[in-house]
């Protein structure tokens, strides 16, 4: 004996059956779109993570650049100080100049008197 399933006596009109088929197809499309969007979302989250790391690296680079600038300013100040010191040492002082020219003037006068 063949038994019929319990839902065998349920009937749909053609319009209702077509509507059910359309909705099932739409559900499949929505599921596929959801899967695609989830994958895209994961990729975007990875991009955000990479961009945040890039920002952190750039902040570190800026800090290193600031430190380098400060070090270069200090080196430049030391070089300027050293150059000023060299110029000061190379330039004869007032009394040294006076005594040198005074000596040569005295020698010149002595020679002039002898002649």
> Quick check: average pLDDT?
85
Q: Compute the gyration radius: what is it?
A: 48 Å
The 3D shape can be described as rod-shaped
Number of helices: 2
Write the layout of secondary structure elements.
Blueprint: H1 14-90, H2 94-114
What does this protein structure show overall?
0% of the residues are buried. This protein is mostly helical and 115 residues long. It contains 2 helices and no strands. The chain is 85% helix and 0% strand. The protein has helices at 14-90, 94-114. The longest helix has 77 residues, at 14-90. The N and C termini lie far apart (162 Å). The protein has one domain (14-114).
Task: Name its key features.
115 residues, mainly alpha, 85% helix
Quick take:
By secondary structure, this protein is mainly α. The protein contains 2 helices and no strands.
